[in-house]
Every structure is written in C-alpha cells, then in structure tokens.
Amino acid sequence: MADVIMETNFKDVKLQKRGKVRDVYEVGDNLLIVATDRVSAFDVVLPNGIPDKGRVLTQISIYWFKQMKDIIENHIIATDVKDYPQVLHKYSDILEGRSMFVKKAKPMPVECIVRGYLSGSGWKEYNEKGTVCGIKLPQGLVESSRLDEPIFTPSTKAEAGHDININFDEMKKIVGDDTANKLRDTSLKVYKKARAMAEKKGIIIADTKMEFGIYENKLILIDELLTPDSSRFWSMKDYKPGKGQDSFDKQIVRDYLLTLDWNQTYPGPKLPDEIIEKTAARYKEIIEILTKQ
Questions:
Q1: What is the pTM of this model?
Q2: Structure confidence at residue 1 as a pLDDT band (50, 70, 90)
C-alpha cells in the first residue's frame, strides 16, 4: 500500500492551522495548503487515512479552478513546487502533487452550497417540511430527485461540530446584500458549468460546497473546489431516483462505520485494509473520469 501522509511538520515554516484534512502554513504574505490523506467521518478524524487521497483532492481542485477562471479568479499562485519559495523546496517529496501555494485571502464567514439534486440534509428537510433551507420545492419529489433549477443554500461556518444551514436573508445579515447576491450568483454559475461538463463524462454533481474570500478588494474562490470531499458525485448510468445513490467519495467509510458499535465521538475506530483499498480506488476512479489524470 502507498505511503499515507497523515500530518506534515515543516519546522521552519509557520503552521497556521490543521484542519480535518488540510494543513495550512504561512509563507511570507501567502499560504501553503497541503492536503493530507486524513479522512474524517461524522466530524471525527479517523486514526488511519486513505493513500493518495490528498493528491486526488488537490489535483481535482486545480482542474476545476482552471475551468472556472472565466467566471471568477481563484487563490492559486503556483502548484509546482519548483515555483514555490526556496524554503519549501526541500519538502518537495511531500508537497509535489498534494499542495498549492496560494494568496492569503480573507475568508467569507459562510459556506456557499448549491444543490441540483435532493439528497442528504436537504432530502431530510424536504421530507419533513417540503422545503430545503426554507426554499419551497414542488410536491412529489423523491430522494435523489433532480431539481428543475439548482438552489443556493448557504450555511454558517462552525469551528467545531456541524455547520448550520441558513436562509438567504440570514446570509444577507452576515455579509451584506451586495456580497450575498454576488456569492449566490457566482456559486450557481460555477455549479451549472461544472454540472454540464461532468454530465458529458457520465457524472452527476448532485451538490457542492464552495468557499470564497476577499483578496485586494475582490471576491475570489479559495480552499478546494468540486472535490469528492466537498461534493456528491454520482454515476449517471447507475442513477435511480427514489433512493440514496453510491457516491465517489468516502461513503464506503461511512457505511462501514455505521455497522460498528461506535458513538461517533473521538477517537474514531481504525479502518480495515479492505475498506481503505476500496475507498482509495473510488477516489482514483473519479479523478480519472473527470480530469483524465
């Protein structure tokens, strides 16, 4: 099995934060984002990771950031280690393929979520109230139904625990009317372009979560974009409305964990080799389909 990068420690570079998957370093006025192979489920980082998961996430993000440049700029400065500051070159073995050297933007305090299909928490709310994040939807939809028009459903950003879904008016109160409108319109444009591109390759993008920041007074895309960790990807040929769909992501991990007597709190259980291998294959399958890498 390939080496698994669970954590990075660059002694002469300042660690800004360690997220569930990414380690972020400050390098001068910019940032270095390193995607590790850590995997989280139910907001708990598990003891062992998925080989090459960080590389897959990084390369898919880079692919989509390039595709969306006609809609909005992004935070990438360089993705090849030889173009990074000299202090990082000695870490190229770890950084190559799983890192991005990026602009240090001020992150927006909301997550921008677009849903084109009824799934997850959206399906749960629709089942109970006929709405998703307060947006009234037609009657008679089933789990995994395609929505005639994608909907924008923002959420708060939680430092710990779950993000909380909010409606558009609540988002306006947080970021202001003009910014809220721009975030919504841009998110929908990005999603619609990505959905059309993915469908040509036999992939449904059911929903996705985007992050934006302000850099030099301009709104830009930051963090990751349209990866299996931030989106639900389904196979068009296997798609059947009326039930949950198989996703190209860590669903295999979640399904396995649900068979265990585990209370979904730290520490998480160790994953068996079989589950790790199946999940790694799923991540590699989606990058090959989407980017031909």
A1: 0.94
A2: very low
